[in-house]
Amino acid sequence: MKERKNGLFSVMSRIEGMSNQFTKTDWKIVQYMKENMQEFVSCSAQDLATQIGVSDASVIRFAQKVGFSGLNEFRYILQSELERENTIINQNSYTSLMHDYNTLTETLFKFTKPEYVDLLRKKMLKARRIFIAGMDLNKNIAEMAGHKFMLLGLDVRVITTYDTLKLFANLATKDDLFIVITLSGAHQMLADALGRIVQNESYIVVISNYERSLCSAYADLTFLIPKTNLLENHDTITREIYILMLFDIIFLNLLEEDEKSHEAFQKIAPFSSWNQKDND
């Protein structure tokens, strides 16, 4: 980061260009600046002299040597350029993050096959009960998705613990539908529960990062969520957003293709854009 700033700061570039003119004292000041830029632009000449181990006059002479009337002007220009550089860095970071989000969104829509969404809609409408299972970090997602589909009048149950999943796995029937969120797809306890659900002939949908995993092996239908690990901002990006986005796609398909779902949603959302479309 320091090298990047040195290349962009006009003041620091000027200092680098004058390096053959500096005394040992000057170099001590330069070194302190590079390592403690914020302190340099905020401390008095006396404080700087004490911290660097030089005299007050040496600090002032250095400011004049690099082309300023004194320390105050030197610090003012440094502060201005520091703020400008931070703004550029932040803007570049935001641009990079936006690019990563756009990449993931485009990938999600490429992964999500329309025929799979249509098939899931038909299975959801036909199912006696719909279970949305999300354990550990996926609990909140399962709860939000469950509430969303309840608005359409569907019989949706949310499962957020392995014990509850095990219970319903044993009670499952061929008329039930299980939508399971597991990005890694590698949880043995979850796989065991899915194995029991398969024995009871329930339909299983898995939402995962991996098409072939321990859990997806039990799925009748798998929806892929794009992985973030190769992106520059992978530690910043919230992957759960893309699972919710997938549920939005499924929700939209129900509204557009199923009249009863549309009517149910209109009753609880009288001011939605859907009503406005009908009135136009």
UniProtKB/TrEMBL annotation:
PROSITE patterns: HTH_RPIR, SIS. Keywords: DNA-binding, Transcription, Transcription regulation. SUPFAM superfamilies: Homeodomain-like, SIS domain. The keyword DNA-binding applies. Residues 9-85 form the HTH rpiR-type domain. Gene3D superfamilies: Glucose-6-phosphate isomerase like protein, domain 1, Winged helix-like DNA-binding domain superfamily/Winged helix DNA-binding domain. This is MurR/RpiR family transcriptional regulator. It comes from Laedolimicola intestinihominis. The lineage of its organism: Bacteria, Bacillati, Bacillota, Clostridia, Lachnospirales.
